[in-house]
Amino acid sequence: MIVECSFSKLRDIDKIVTYCRVDKDLSQWIEETTTLMGSKNDYPG
What we know:
This protein is mainly α.
């Protein structure tokens, strides 16, 4: 499964990834996670 998320603060993505790894029910289904981050320019190109 691929999940795309958008966050304004980096700690918010940490919360959801950590939750998926430690939640009793979710952790039974998830074998591993990989987090990739990207960013957009804040100025006109």
